[in-house]
Amino acid sequence: MMAIAEALRRLYERIHEVCIRVGRDPGEVRLMAVSKFHERDALEEAWQGGIRLFGENRVQEAGRKFPGFKQDHPRTELHMIGSLQRNKAKAALALFDCIQSVDRDELITELGTLTLKREQPLMVLLELHTGEASKAGYPDVEHLFRATERVLSFPNLTIGGLMTMAPFTEDKELIRGSFRSLVSARDQLRIRFPGCDWSCLSMGMSNDFEIALEEGATLLRIGTALFGERRP
Questions:
Q1: Is residue 232 part of a domain?
Q2: Which CATH number fits the domain that encloses residue 113?
Q3: Is residue 186 a part of any domain in this protein?
Q4: What residues have CB less than 8 Å from 213, skipping those under 6 apart?
Q5: Which of 143, 141, 157 shows the shortest CA–CA distance to 191?
Q6: Distances from the Cα of 188 to the Cα of 148, 159, 191, angstroms
Q7: Whether this model's pTM surpasses 0.90
Q8: Domain that holds residue 203
Q9: In total, how many domains does the chain have?
């Protein structure tokens, strides 16, 4: 497996090249290490390479790995990027700094209720469905409008932007269309809710992040290209 430090170097080079080519500032792009199925030694190596933002898909796995890691590395930021069940929302709030995968109104209500007495607001991203039928997310911008209103009804929830997962395909135009749908939704939400922060566009993974950068991604969720193939 390629050393994580070398993988990071190559990733940053590719990010820089794409951004310069399309006239973007590479400094506006955050790189998230998707650490699903990877253990403490890999997290440490990513940290030593400069990674401060990690993403996990499962509450139970994050709960096993990250409390000790965050204690040793206080500047670590951890985001939930997998589907979150309501019965695990309370546990998630104790672990994650942001829930990116907010994909239904019932989850907003659960998170909003659980955070009513929280000192620090919880950041959430609204997930738009732009890929396969099996993937989660709100179906269109009208649903995102209503979801935003629901988030705003809770004092300790704050919106940080949007996320999506493109279809897993070699058809680059389908992938590009997915990312453009998220950008279009963001633009409409900015008009409807100008007081909210829509700056984060979480889109692009190991297989499609260069297209995501071309279309305006500000947060890339990278697993395989950083850590190598995941264990089953």
A1: no
A2: 3.20.20.10
A3: yes
A4: 15, 18, 19, 22, 24, 29, 204, 220
A5: 141
A6: 12, 15, 5
A7: yes
A8: 4-227
A9: 1
d(CA 66, CA 232): 20
Q: How far is the C-alpha of 200 from the C-alpha of 162, rounded, in Å?
A: 6
**In tens digits, what is the pLDDT along the chain, a chain of 232 residues?**
458 999 999 999 999 999 999 999 999 999 999 999 999 999 999 999 999 999 999 999 999 999 999 999 999 999 999 999 999 999 999 999 999 999 999 999 999 999 999 989 999 999 999 986 657 899 999 999 999 999 999 999 999 999 999 998 999 999 999 999 999 999 999 999 999 999 999 999 999 999 999 999 999 999 999 998 765 4
d(CA 57, CA 101): 9
Q: Residue 50, by phi and psi: left (phi above 0), alpha (psi -120 to 50) or beta?
A: left
Q: Token pair for residue 25?
A: 């500032």
Strand 122-127 relative to strand 77-80, pairing = unpaired
Q: Residue 71: which H helix or E strand, with range?
A: helix 59-72
Tokens of 151: 């988030």
Asked if 130 and 178 touch (Cβ cutoff 8 Å), the reply is yes
